Amino acid sequence: MNTEVQTLLTSGVTLTDAALERLLPASTTEPHSIHRAMRHSVFAGGKRLRPILCMEAARMVAATGQLPPGAAELGAAIEMAHTYSLIHDDLPALDNDDLRRGKPTCHVAYGEAIAILAGDALQNLAFQVLADLPAPPATIVAILRDFALSIGTGVGAPTAITPGMIGGQVVDIESEGIHPTAELVERIHRAKTGALITTSIVTGGLLGLAHLPTEPGAPGPGSGTRVSTNLNHPDLIARLRTFGENAGLAFQIVDDILDMTQTSAELGKTAGKDTAAIKATWPAVYGIEQSQKDAASLIADAFAALAPFGPAATPLKSLAQYLVDRTH
Amino acid sequence: MNTEVQTLLTSGVTLTDAALERLLPASTTEPHSIHRAMRHSVFAGGKRLRPILCMEAARMVAATGQLPPGAAELGAAIEMAHTYSLIHDDLPALDNDDLRRGKPTCHVAYGEAIAILAGDALQNLAFQVLADLPAPPATIVAILRDFALSIGTGVGAPTAITPGMIGGQVVDIESEGIHPTAELVERIHRAKTGALITTSIVTGGLLGLAHLPTEPGAPGPGSGTRVSTNLNHPDLIARLRTFGENAGLAFQIVDDILDMTQTSAELGKTAGKDTAAIKATWPAVYGIEQSQKDAASLIADAFAALAPFGPAATPLKSLAQYLVDRTH
């Protein structure tokens, strides 16, 4: 890992953790048990990859070199949603995991009832944080829409939707024991992992747009053409979405590979579970070598989407490269 | 029950159910199981009291006699939040209820994993619906803030909060088996039931304000002084909040009384559970007769808060009266 990425990751964790510390109720606040349970899982040593991607997308779009106001809070909201999904995934009725990042899972530490409610409360708090972002109301509503669509059952018409985070989880549960096809695995991965990573980047971009220096005579912040690239607003968001979708899928493929090749101690969670349960994973369909090639190819596509941003895209691209090069 | 209330309830159910039908993914939409589970619980015969209170608050504030655009959708979002809380409450790890409104609870019909995720998805969809309300972004953000604060662990500074819906649920769980004090019961009731009822009315009012006829020269919708009462915006919302808090507490007291005096068949759920579990209820502290007096007194306070609205408040007041007069 190069020094630049190491710095991004280290400062990103610090910024995210400080925002989470500000936004989560104190563990001494009543009712104690749920606030302790929320903090137990939120501060269990997560790498904060989603908030860091969110903050760097916001910084790139705002084009000032600085993090726009509210970027750390938005990242914290995304981390809360991620943590809620892990708490509920780990429950006995779902994946029944006792260990997460080397620590007891929420229901092991606090009991099932509190774990269910702590997950609920973290989803709730994520949305609550959006309402207080220092951004124009129209930006907050756009962020709310993309975020909610991404972490729900899916996006689209009531009769045909692309699964979101919860939808992906359901497809994953329902396909256990079924021989995984390439189509099924891609569908689960794009929904279960990809949707949250994509909205991290898209909502970061929406926040960045609200703090964009506009051309003279433009009607107001967020409405102008991006000075440095001449991308209009929808094009810019579409490019961030493409970047997020490709990087998100690559991330999950690498996760699948690591699950097969690493020990539990290296991963901080039970390794080999996916194989044991005949789960839908990329290497189960394509083998490890092809999976590695696919991850690299997806990252190349992700990079291409950011081409118009020029050197300002370097941090996001370095992070994406790290996602596929990591070893745990 | 008088004819006016009967009409309000009947037309309110029709409007709410139509909005829910439009907003929920079809049961034929993949992944099927979760969408079927969401619909199973949402369309299990709820009385739609919260959406009806929300719509009537919006109508009263908008002062045109008509429902403002989006009122039924906002009511549907509130009903989704209510349903999600019931699905999770009924789980084996929490209240372990098999029967709700005379039908099998979600986890009995679809299994625990899908019930947990269906609850998650309904909370998510409730927030998603807010993003598309036909109202100015500033109104949507104000609704988002009040709604999220009300249904979370609580409202206030990180070190001292008034419990919201989830917070009330936690206090309720933690106080099982403890001899209930008056203070504890009031705290649980105000949070677990009162907070959602209050936000139904407050957010309805916020939506109504966005569609308010403004005085000549006022800068835009939602910013003017209310023509018919001369209440300014914060006073108006404060009065709706007082109405909601009092009516919400009265509603829960009556629920406690009915649980002690009705059979399971009359209630459509297991009667007498509260007594059996030494739960914190109003009659357990004050006895049934005093509880009835307290409910009546709270409704009188709720009515007083609406005095400046004059005859336009009649529907909301009739509904509040119905909440304490009902027999199931």
Main sheet record of chain A? 2 strands, antiparallel
- Silhouette of chain A: globular
What's the helical proportion of residues of chain A? 55-70%
Indicate the radius of gyration of chain A in whole angstroms: 19 Å
Query: Would you tell me which CATH topology of chain A applies?
Result: Farnesyl Diphosphate Synthase
Strand order across the biggest sheet of chain A? 1-2
Low-confidence stretches of chain A: 217-228
Number of helices of chain A: 15
Question: At the fourth CATH level, what is the homologous superfamily of chain A?
Answer: Farnesyl Diphosphate Synthase
Mean pLDDT of chain A: 89
Can you identify the CATH class of chain A? Mainly Alpha
The counted number of beta strands of chain A is: 4
SSE order of chain A, as H and E? HHHHEEHHHEEHHHHHHHH
CATH A-level architecture of chain A = Orthogonal Bundle
* Largest interface, chains and sizes: A-B, 59 and 59 residues
Descriptive account of the structure:
Two copies of one chain form a homodimer. Chain A has 328 residues and is mainly α. Chain A has a single domain, classed as Farnesyl Diphosphate Synthase. In chain A, 66% of the residues lie in helices and 4% in strands. Chain A contains 15 helices and four strands. Chain A has helices at 3-23, 32-42, 49-62, 71-90, 106-110, 112-131, 137-151, 165-174, 182-210, 233-261, 264-267, 273-276, 282-286, 288-305, 314-325; strands spanning 99-100, 103-104, 154-157, 160-163. In chain A, the strands form two sheets. In chain A, strands 1-2 form a two-stranded antiparallel sheet. In chain A, strands 3-4 form a two-stranded antiparallel ribbon. In chain A, helix 1 crosses helix 3, helix 3 packs across helix 9 (182-210) and helix 4 (71-90) runs antiparallel to helix 6 (112-131). The longest helix of chain A is centred in the middle third of the chain and has 29 residues, at 182-210. The two termini of chain A are 13 Å apart. Residues 217-228 of chain A have low confidence and may be disordered. The interface between A and B is large, with 59 and 59 residues.
